[in-house]
Amino acid sequence: MRSRMVIVAAVVAIVAGGVIMVPSAMAKFGSKDQADSATWVSHHATAAPLASSAPSPSPRPPAPATLKARPVSVTVDGFFSWALMDRTTGKIAGARNITSTNSTESMIKPWIVADYLRTTAASGKTPSRTRLTQASLAIRDSDDNAAESLYRAGGGNAVIQRMIRICRLTDTKVYPGWWSRTQISARDAVRMGNCIADGRAAGPKWTAWVLTEMTKVRGTTAAKDQHATTGGGRWGIIDGLPKEIIQQGVSIKNGWTAIGADGNWHVNCLAIGHDWVLAVLMRYPIAKGLKYGANVCASVARQLVVPGGTASQ
User: Fold this and answer.
1) Which domain covers residue 263, as residue numbers?
2) How far apart (Å, rounded) are the C-alpha atoms in residues 90 and 195?
């Protein structure tokens, strides 16, 4: 996960449709190679004017701050993809390579936890104190050993197969016996996040618990917070959000590993808000450090923020 070296299979880039791409001249982050921008277009019908005798409508309340699809511009020295789901409509926008995959690393841990809790509840059982501690540590401290224990208890490959089926993922591939090497696209990552948020992943009894644990992720990218099988994971998207959005409640889980086989950091960021889900996927040279990827995730989030205080549409 953190500094340990593992081997990850090559990823094939696939071009997706359904997203309208526009150039952007926004400030860039990074050094070279891959700049990307994406948005979609909304069309609004215009209502006929009211008769002069009709009473004036009451003013609509100010809309809260949120994330909305709009052009995103970053430059990453390597692979970069992102996706944003509008949870009110189910629409997904993102990068041109929105279907290209990356190894999930620890970003998949909330699903492993949620799947164990749902299947345990479905069998009429209550998780032991030990299992609940493992579930909490897997999310809050990105504990590899805790996640591995829950993964095995859930049936190994079957855990990922259920994720693909229940969350209706289309680009995700199982890597036999190795949850962190599961291949997932940005599009499927936001679908997974929404699956956790809407209750399909953990079920009615445990969904709120999982989402709350995801708000309690702790630790930074600093070396003092990074260890062989655990690590600080409160960085990335959360750093690009204003206080107003964070106060609404934002559940997060990042995944990060320096892979010796390809010489790259594999970094993924996932965040779930009240009406949106955002995912950012990257691979870039190890020498650039973990903070480089954290800054990319924050930059993407920052560019998608729509401030509150405007009239709701």
Assistant:
1) 64-306
2) 11
